[in-house]
Each structure stands twice: as C-alpha cells, then as structure tokens.
Amino acid sequence: MIEMMRVDDRLIHGQVALLWTKQLGLDRIIVANDKAAASDIQKNALLLAAPAKVKVAIVPVKKAIAMANDPRGARFKMLVLVNNVNDLYQIVQQVDPGDTKVDIANVGRVSGDIENKHKINETVYLNDEELAQVKEINTLAKNFVYQPLPTDSPKPFASLLKGE
Amino acid sequence: MLLYQAFIIALFVAWGKWIGAYGSFGQVMPFFFTPILALLLGKDPVNALMIDAAIALAFYGVMQIGAVLPQDTGFGGALGLGFALILNQKPAIGVALAVPISMLAVVVWNLLKFWFTTNVEIFDRYIDQRNLRKFNRLWWIQMGVYIFTYFILAFLAVLLGTHGIKAFVTSIPKPLLSGLTVAAGMLPAVGMGMLLKFVWNIEFLPFFIAGFVLAAYLKLPIMAISLFGVVFGLVMFFIDRHINEVKKSNSLSTTNNVNSDDEGDFFND
Amino acid sequence: MTDAQAAPQKDNNLQLNADEKKLTKRLFWRNMWLGFNMSYTRQQGVAWDWIHAPIYKKIYKDDPDKFWEAMKRNMEFYNTTPNMNGIVSGLAVSMEQENAKAPAGTFDTAGISGMKIGLMGPMAGIGDTFFAGVWGLILAGIGISFAKAGNMAVLLVSVIGLIPNIAVRWYGQKYSYKLGSKYIAKAVQDGLMTMFTKATSIVGVTVVGGMIATLVKFPLVFKTKINGNVFALQKVFDQIMPSLLPLALSVICFVLLRKGKNPVLVLVGVVLLGFILTFLGITGA
C-alpha cells in the first residue's frame, strides 16, 4: 500500500532516501515525473540517490497512477514522489488517498519566478494555480500535512493556508 | 639568524598547509620536503629525515574520526621537526614537541572553520546579488587568512619560543628523556587503533592475524606484507563478484527498474 | 583521427574534441582546490561552486540567468574525498551541458543534485578507505622505514604515491564526463563499489596487522636474578609470542576508541603509560 505521497523539489535526495525510508520501512518508491522518466541521465541520477534495498520506478505521471492503483502493490510499502503540485493534484484525483499521508515538503524555490509566488512558509512557495490545486487536494486528502523530515512534527497543511 | 630560521620554518609550515589540501598531495608525499627544509636551515638532511621519521611514527595512522580531528599533525610535525633541527636535538625531542603542539593547533583550525561557516551566508548573498567578483574575492581572502594564520603562528612560535624551549629541553633530566622515547615508541598504537576502528569488520579478523604473523614471525618488510594484503583483497573481490553473479542469475534481475514504459520487476520481489 | 572527425559522435567515444579537452583540463586543475575553505554547514559546497564557476560560465555563456541559477543550486551541502571528486565533477558538468542544450523547461536540474548527493557517499567510502586509509598508510610506512635509516630513496615514494592520486582525478573525470551516469550508476547498483571498498579494507587491515608488529615499540628492560639465572622480562614475552605487547596495546587502543572514548584521552593515556613504566624500570630506551 502507499505509505505517503510527497512533493519534493529534488525528488529523491539524501533526506528522502535515508530518513523516510527508515521511518516508513519503505521497499518501493514510485517517482512520478514526465521529464525525469524521459531522460536517461536523470533516471540514473535518481537511482543513485535511492537507498540500496529499495526498488525505484521512475515513470510518467500517468503510468504512476496506474501503478499506484495496481492491486499487486498491496504487499509493499510504497512512497509516491512528485516534484510539483500539479502532478500531486492529478494523482490525488485518480488515486484515492484515503488516510494516506499527503505531504508537501519543499516546492517552488528551484524553478520559476519566486517573486510572483505566495510564500506559504520557508520551503513552500506556490503560484495562484497551485494554490487553488492545494485547496482542492485539502478536500480530497484527510491527512494532508507539511512535514519536511520524519523528525519534524506534521502540521495540517490547511493551517498554513490561513490568510491565503 | 633566529629571524631567518623562524621565517624558513614558517614558510615550511605554510607550504605544508597548502600542499596538504591542494590536490591532497601532502597525503601521498611523505618526507618529500623534509630534506629541503634541512638544507635551507643549513642542517644535515639525513638527520632531518630521522627526526621526521620518529615524528611520523608518533602520528602514524592518526585520522579524523567523526567530527573529532584529534591532532593537527601537519602543523605539530613541522614545528617539532623545525625546533629539533635548529636546537640540534634528538628525534625524541622532536616528538615531545610535535605531539603537544599538534593537539593545541587543532583549536586554530576549529576557529578558522567556524569563521568560514559564518561566511557561507555572505557567499550565498553574493550569489543572490550575482556578484562573481565579490564571491571570488571572499574566497581568496579566506585562502589568504588560512595560509597566513599558520605562517604567522609558526613564525612567532619559533621567534619567541626557541629560547624557552631550548632551556626546557636542555634541562630535561635523563630518566624523563628515556620515558619520552618509550612513550614515542608506543604512540603508533593509538594510530593503529584509529585505523582499525575505521575499517573494522569482524570478517577481516583473519587478514589482521595474517598481517601480524607475517611481520612478527616471518619478519617480512612492509612492502611484502602490503603485497600479501593485495592478494587477500583480490581473492575476496573475485569471490564476492562470483557470489553477486550467482545471486543475480537466480533472481534474473535484482537491479532497480530503469524502464520507463512498463513497471519491469517493480512488483516482483 | 582528428578532433574534427571525433567531434560529431559524442556517445561511446572517449576521444575529446578541442573544446572538451580545454574544458576538462581546466576542470582537472580547478578540482585540486576542493579541500580548501570547508565549513561546518556546507562542507565543500562553497569550494564546489568556486571550482565550477568558470566552467558554468562557459556552459551558460549566453544565459546569465541559467548561470546564476546553477551557482545557487550548487551551493548545497557537498562532502566527499577530494581525490575522488573528478568522477562526480565530470558527470555533473556533462549534465549541466545537457541542461544548457535542452529547450527551457525540459531538463529537470534536480537530477544533478540527486546525482551529486547519491554519489558523494559511495565515493567517500572508497576514497577514504583507499587514499586516507590504505594508500597513505602504506606510503607512510615505507617512507618511515627509509627515513629512519636516513635513506634518500624516500623521495621516490612520493613519486609513486602521486600516481593513483593523479590517475583517479584525471581518468575518473574524463570517463565520467564522456561515458555519463549509466556506467557509474550500474557500478554502484551492482555492488561493485562496495566490493572494491571491502577489498581495499582487507589490504588495510593486513598492513595494520604487520605495522603493529614492526612499528609499535614496547621495549622491556626489566631484568632480575632468580637462583643465579638471569630473568629478562622481554625474553619471557618473546617466548610466548613476538610483539605480544605491541599487539595488546594496539588492540586496547582500538577497543577504547571503538567504545567512543575521546582519541585525545587515549593518546594521553598511552604517553602516561610509557612514562610510568619507564620510571618503574620496566620499560626503557
């Protein structure tokens, strides 16, 4: 089953790879990203960052949705990883999140014009469209939080949106 | 005369700091610059090598463990060697000076690194301001301060400390000196312990015993023991590779799924 | 084959064209600086940026936005064995070039960070074991045995010592730049890196075993007469096993360090032991 759906600018990197894998006891990671899936270089780089015993699939978002809904996934502990809110929005619409933790950790600082984005907090910046999507996600996911590291206490994401 | 000696030793220390980090060359060039220092100081290069060998032994195997750098062996070693040379002292005196100096000098590095850390924020700011010139300038200021700090410390230590150290070493009573020599001979044990801690795995016990026996009973030189080590390493490497291949052919593919079009063995064990 | 002929086919071709040659040479020399200006928070992050700034400038020469974006992106935490950095650096530069060539928005630069973070660990694992541990250890050991005898042949040790350092820096960078991530990713995943580190550690452990017997000194001078026979302590220990006490002392140091005792305390302890035993007349110079 899916243990967590997570938005992180850098997809798999040191934090995700080691801390979350330990915390959640992961054995599978689905990286849902159209660009990464199309590039061998990026795919290899992401595989390098993955912990040794975890199997990783780097697939386009559409394929990731199919895999997340695949009944064979029930016996694994899986993490679905995206690097932008739009991808998460698509996934949450087509994969019922139920009680699964949906976590927006780092997004918006790496690409795009940060001046025109709403600063939600230090690590999350959203544009208007993304803000609307986040609000929709909030109605779909029961356990929608902000939690960069397992050691951070999870904050309900809705509590960060006050005033937006 | 002392001014000249202080300058040369300070230069040697600064050079050591430079070559120690530049390309990590210092790590693979033991004793290379020792005879040059001796010649510049007008001393016997062969004797200098012997002093430096005693110091290197005392530091043998010392390496950083976790966040703790126990000794600044470069700075301490260079000053110990320098003092022993200009005071025409025995190797044991060089060791006696090098070890405490190396332990004190760690403080200097910690302070420098602390300053570098506070500067990171400024480097970040220069990037935000898109100012490569200022970025490079701060880099070179840090470089300069780093090298110059050690230069000036060594220079002052020799200039101001030589008389005191001379009085100290000539007043060392004989039993203390032999105690010093014995302690210097035992010190490599600490370095050996550090190295073992760094690479240890209980599976390596047979190789450790083999190395010890080859030296203790068969009296083989280090070179020969190193070659035996290479033999052991290669044998284990090929065994591991074989095991790995067998494992792989059993499960067809244990590597991560690289294919983007289908899920490959993602749902297999 | 001329450079012009080699230029068009980049893949599976180790020949560098003139531009690439210039770039990799520059990068090789810049990479010598990775050990300087470390900080607690980013370790070699600032040095990485300083090293690559002129390279990035060349790669993104028409696009200052992308250049500064690359500078900002690469200021992140980075820490590996400097000798091994050519491999990561060559790969990172080839990825930045892909990024520069790719139409806007089609290359995800997160992959570059991912690669650096993914590789720095395994590279440091091998590099520290090989360069700091085994190679430095053997060189110093041979150097000491020459220097103790005042033998100038010790100068040759450095020449030999430099060979793997330079070779790993140059060829590591060149191959990773030309062949790309696929081969290195495969080596990491196949466990080749772990196997190599293990083999290197075995060389190290063997040499340490030998070094303990030859380099650690525990000279016993205590002698007494029992029933008219001379009883020399050193002889007794030698009959049990040669170099028994150096072995015991080293193992005790190892156990203390492994238990997390401060290395400085262990060192002071050994010095005190040497002094006390000498004053008691048990050991001596």
From TrEMBL, chain A:
GO terms for biological process: phosphoenolpyruvate-dependent sugar phosphotransferase system. Residues 1-164 form the PTS EIIB type-4 domain. Pfam families: PTSIIB_sorb. Its main location: cytoplasm. The keyword Zinc does not apply. GO terms for molecular function: kinase activity; protein-N(PI)-phosphohistidine-sugar phosphotransferase activity. Signal peptide: none annotated. GO terms for cellular component: cytoplasm. It is found in: Cytoplasm. Keywords: Cytoplasm, Kinase, Phosphotransferase system, Sugar transport, Transferase, Transport. The keyword Kinase applies. Transmembrane segments: none annotated. This is PTS EIIB type-4 domain-containing protein. The lineage of its organism: Bacteria, Bacillati, Bacillota, Bacilli, Lactobacillales.
TrEMBL record, chain B:
Pfam families: EII-Sor. Keywords: Cell membrane, Membrane, Phosphotransferase system, Sugar transport, Transmembrane, Transmembrane helix, Transport. It is found in: Cell membrane. The keyword Ribosomal protein does not apply. It comes from the Bacteria. It is a multi-pass membrane protein. GO terms for cellular component: plasma membrane. The keyword Membrane applies. One of its GO terms (biological process) is phosphoenolpyruvate-dependent sugar phosphotransferase system. The chain crosses the membrane at residues 49-71, 91-116, 137-160, 172-191, 198-216, 222-239. PANTHER family: N-ACETYLGALACTOSAMINE PERMEASE II COMPONENT-RELATED (PTHR32502), N-ACETYLGALACTOSAMINE PERMEASE IIC COMPONENT 1 (PTHR32502:SF8). This is Uncharacterized protein. It comes from Agrilactobacillus composti DSM 18527 = JCM 14202.
Automatic annotation (TrEMBL), chain C:
This is PTS system mannose fructose sorbose family IIDsubunit. GO terms for biological process: phosphoenolpyruvate-dependent sugar phosphotransferase system. GO terms for cellular component: plasma membrane. It comes from the Bacteria. It comes from Agrilactobacillus composti DSM 18527 = JCM 14202. It holds the Pfam family EIID-AGA. The lineage of its organism: Bacteria, Bacillati, Bacillota, Bacilli, Lactobacillales. Coiled coil: none annotated. The chain crosses the membrane at residues 125-146, 152-171, 192-216, 236-257, 264-282. Keywords: Membrane, Transmembrane, Transmembrane helix.
